[in-house]
Design brief:
- The chain has 204 residues and is mainly alpha-helical.
- Helices cover 77% and strands 0% of the residues.
- It is built from eleven helices and no strands.
- Helix 1 crosses helix 3.
- The radius of gyration is 16 Å and the shape is globular.
- The relative contact order is 0.11.
């Protein structure tokens, strides 16, 4: 959730041509590309390949597997919930733990991913707390994709709790951030639109 720029589709095409060994050697490239694949959407197989290569890098080259790579890999697992929901929640929790102590640049994204996994697990109070921590980060305005993702989840939590004024505020902010960042037509933008749709339905 720290990427998502105009050239990211080019990045994914380039990464697809690289041999596995090269991506294992540079795990930060693998996890950054996995983040991009998730954020753009319709890239599930590519995302899975990249996360598996990151896992392999952590097992085979633990010294070169940075806290940033660990936090981002966990965030991708949490945000995309590609498989077991319990594992997604655990991955999100670990991503936040690592990011807050050793990789602050990934913290907003980790919190946003963790909040989404918690929401899907029905843990509304914890999801709200994680989402609020994300949007209260001092650098959140410079981390637009993660900011939009956190706001989308906060809107869903608020709608579920009947806090429709708060839900609308968060959903509209998520849509605005996505539009301003140029990623309305992406998985992140779709999340923001879906959140606003939930709010509108709740309002009747």
């Amino acid at each position: 959730l720290t990427l998502l720029r105009t050239g990211d589709r080019t990045l994914l095409r380039w990464v697809r041509t690289l041999p596995d060994e090269q991506l294992v050697e540079y795990p930060e490239l693998a996890v950054s590309a996995a983040t991009t694949a998730m954020c753009l959407g319709h890239q599930t197989l590519q995302q899975r390949r990249l996360i598996k290569l990151a896992d392999r890098a952590q097992a085979e080259r633990p010294v070169s597997f940075s806290p940033y790579a660990q936090a981002v890999a966990g965030m991708v697992r949490a945000a995309s919930v590609d498989g077991d929901l319990g594992l997604a929640v655990a991955a999100g929790r670990r991503a936040v733990e690592v990011a807050q102590t050793e990789a602050d640049v990934a913290l907003v994204a980790a919190l946003a991913g963790y909040a989404r996994a918690l929401y899907l697990a029905g843990k509304l109070e914890e999801a709200w707390a994680a989402g609020m921590r994300a949007i209260e980060h001092p650098d959140v305005e410079h981390r637009a994709p993660a900011h939009a993702h956190a706001r989308s989840t906060l809107a869903l939590v608020a709608a579920d709790r009947g806090w429709l004024g708060s839900a609308r505020t968060h959903a509209e902010r998520a849509k605005s951030i996505a539009g301003g960042g140029g990623f309305s037509r992406s998985w992140l933008g779709a999340n923001a639109s879906a959140a606003l749709g939930v709010v509108l339905a709740s309002e009747g």
